Amino acid sequence: MRLESEKSVTIQEILERYPPEQRYTLAVLQEVQKEFGYISPNHLMAISSRLGVPVSEIFSIATFYKALSLDKKGKCIIKVCDGTAC
Predict the structure, then answer these.
(1) What pTM does this model have?
(2) In whole angstroms, how far apart are CA 28 and each of 11, 18, 62, 85?
């Protein structure tokens, strides 16, 4: 995620980096997550339109991977593990 003072890219600029093919769905989602810190409903729609993939499928991928988020997150993320593996 970039600071507000830095130039940020748009969703269109990210989408133009990839051919309009379904196989780039995860790569696009990861780049959008990295740039904006989360994936908004508008991002989902833009990705769907560009790649020709149903929004439901993109939503499914975005919610499957723990590294992707549909919600804005704070500046600092604290993770707590209360399992025996920690």
Answers:
(1) 0.79
(2) 10, 8, 11, 32
